[in-house]
Every structure is written in structure tokens, then in C-alpha cells.
């Protein structure tokens, strides 16, 4: 009977160890689960912090004027708008170049003589128009009148007259000839259906 008692006494530690083993595995799994949960929480916090400034910047951009938004949100740009803007600057630069050349470009003697010839020819045509309107009895109170010619009309051409002087002569010719031109064109429109008669482009 003694051997049986010894066997029973030895079985107690075995049962104790089998009870402790599942408890240890559960503790390890619990720790692993806690570590994984902490990693997931950390990743989520980092992602949230990284996205928040981007969303805030976009919200601020959408509240800005349209010109600023067009620069910030490139995908909303209209190609036609970009083309027009680019070509517009080319035209403005070309106009500025032409304007600068008006001041710094020397005018040739041939161009000055061309101006002089055109002005003298204009005066002769004005006198002819005045005579034709008067002979046709077109508003004779305004057409059958004297025209006081300036002194330069009676003088021969020269090569020393300034461009400013030619501009003054051109303004005088336009002021005097204006009413005769208007009367002549009105006479033509009375017998024509062309409302653009005498139009100059």
C-alpha cells in the first residue's frame, strides 16, 4: 500500500503546474494585444496630426479670392484663360516698345517731306471741295465762305520744319476741313442707302 501513497503525493505538483501554464500564456497574449493596440493608437494619432494642417491649409485657400485660388489649385485653371493672359502681356509689351520708339527714333527727311506734301495737298483739296459745294448750292451759308490760309501755305517746302510744327498744321487742316467734309458726305447720304458713306477705317 505504500507505493500507492507515494504516487498520489507526487501527483499534486503535476496538477499545480498544469494549472499555472494556461495562466502564463494568457498573460503573454494580453501583453502582446496591449502592445499592438498601443501601436495602432500611435499610428492613428500621427496620421491625424499630419492630415489636420493640410485640411486647414486647403480650407484657408478656398476662402481666398479667385485669383489666389487659381494659383493654389492648379487643376481648376482654364487653359483659355492662361492663353489670353499670356498673349495679353505680349501685346502690352509690344505697345510699350512702339511708344518708346516714338520718343527715341529719329524721323528721316523723307518722312518730313512726305508730311509736308500731304498737308499742302490737303489744303488744295479743301479749297476745291469748298468751291464744288458752293457751286452745287449745298448749304451756301456755310460753304460759300472765305478760308483764311496760314502763312506756311504760301511758302515753299523746306527741310527745317519740326515735327511739332507739322502736327500743328495737321490739326488746323482737320479743324477747317471738318465742316466741309460733313456737308459733302451728308449730300451723298441723301441719295444713297449707305449709312457708312465717307466712313474712314
From TrEMBL:
This is Uncharacterized protein. It comes from Hirschia litorea.
Amino acid at each position: 500500500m505504500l507505493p500507492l501513497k507515494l504516487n498520489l503525493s507526487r501527483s499534486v505538483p503535476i496538477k499545480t503546474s498544469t494549472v499555472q501554464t494556461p495562466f502564463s500564456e494568457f498573460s503573454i497574449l494580453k501583453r502582446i494585444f496591449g502592445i499592438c493596440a498601443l501601436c495602432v493608437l500611435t499610428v492613428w494619432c500621427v496620421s491625424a496630426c499630419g492630415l489636420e494642417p493640410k485640411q486647414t491649409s486647403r480650407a484657408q485657400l478656398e476662402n481666398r479670392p479667385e485669383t489666389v485660388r487659381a494659383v493654389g489649385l492648379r487643376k481648376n485653371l482654364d487653359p483659355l484663360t492662361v492663353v489670353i493672359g499670356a498673349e495679353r502681356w505680349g501685346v502690352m509689351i509690344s505697345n510699350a516698345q512702339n511708344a518708346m520708339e516714338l520718343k527715341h527714333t529719329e524721323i528721316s527727311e523723307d518722312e518730313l517731306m512726305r508730311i509736308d506734301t500731304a498737308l499742302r495737298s490737303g489744303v488744295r483739296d479743301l479749297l476745291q471741295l469748298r468751291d464744288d459745294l458752293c457751286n452745287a448750292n449745298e448749304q451756301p451759308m456755310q460753304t460759300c465762305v472765305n478760308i483764311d490760309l496760314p502763312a506756311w501755305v504760301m511758302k515753299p517746302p523746306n527741310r527745317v520744319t519740326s515735327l511739332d510744327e507739322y502736327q500743328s498744321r495737321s490739326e488746323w487742316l482737320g479743324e477747317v476741313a471738318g465742316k466741309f467734309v460733313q456737308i459733302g458726305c451728308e449730300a451723298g447720304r441723301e441719295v444713297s442707302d449707305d449709312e457708312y458713306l465717307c466712313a474712314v477705317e
